[in-house]
Write the structure tokens for this entry.
Amino acid sequence: MKLLYVTREAPYGDNEGFILPEIDSHIQAGWDVFVCPLDGRKLVHRIEQTVLDRTMTKLLISPSICAGAIAQFVRTPRLALDTLWKLVTHSRITLLPRNLAVWPKGLWLGRQVRLLNIQHIHAHWIAVPATMGFIAASVAEVPFSITAHRYDIAQGNLIPTKFEAASFVRAIDEGGASELAMQARSDQRRPIILRMGVNIPDQPAPSPPDGVFRGVVGARLAEKKGYGYLLEAVAIAKQQGLAVHIDAFGDGPLEAELRRKADKLGISELVTWQGSVGHETLLERIRSGDYHFGVLPSVTARDGDKEGIPVFLMEAMAAGLPVISTPNGGIRELVAPGTGILVEERDSDAIAAAMVRLARNPSERRAMGTAARDRIITDFSIEARMNQLRSLISKSVTSGPPYRQPVPETQQDFRKVIV
């Protein structure tokens, strides 16, 4: 199977590390996987050269993009104009510029799909990445599918149009599936709920040393992640005689504000801002045995953005860490009773109480960590999830209409095609 992943920035950047294990799983299953980000340059993660060699790293617009778009337009003018018409007539006025911006690259990508004999396109995010995947799949006449998360669902970018064109739309939690169904037409198929999965280490993380009580959080420094409430909770715990050290991995728009808040609360010595790191580095730290718990006090942002099921929490639980979080978005579907502690959103006192509880009850903490790891092994293994995804993709290829004739093998050299 030749599969193309369309992403926002993966394998580049630091916000889509959760997609890389999916790609690796497909490769391990013997599939030939290509990747095309909307844009991307900064390499953060440790990536297999095989993936980088098959990543179509192109700007949204360039001479080669324009040349490829024109070539594809000349070859399939009706299909190209049909996608343009749908973008213009179906897009919200606020989203139209974003969709039009990817039209040339979508045509260019469709040409690459045809020349490489790619059989299926899978786009992560039902926002602009899925727009580009929709354009490419339409002009190349191959099936495509979408994984929708959460912010992208709320954006409402051509969702009925994409449902109509896609072989299937995957939601990663029940809440996301409900929101998608509300935006799709009543006569369209419902989304498939297929949760994210993670690689599970052979052994849980070693027990941390006695003395310093330490937690870990890995997320962007953004409103939805609730960092401000975590800082307040650390200050409250400190007032109660418990020093909780937090290692925060990630960067984002609130970094300066959060650093100032930590200073103002008098907890700067308890919070270490680790910055943005690659996915493998974060996994190594989670599994290092340095931490007693993972924490992510997510909230619904002012613009309505909320969580799906955060991969960071899954990975912490897979390492045998109990977690502290909120029932935001799909988190309640992950953190079952006995695997961690859920508190109400924006409740700093409750977060502090949960940290104190874990610190003062080591046997309960260890039992929660064991249950958390068992939960991931049973319900969130990436191999089980990707076997299901591969089955859906294979079905779309074998049961779909007779697509375009393959290009002769002599024309399929990737390095010669991507120009």
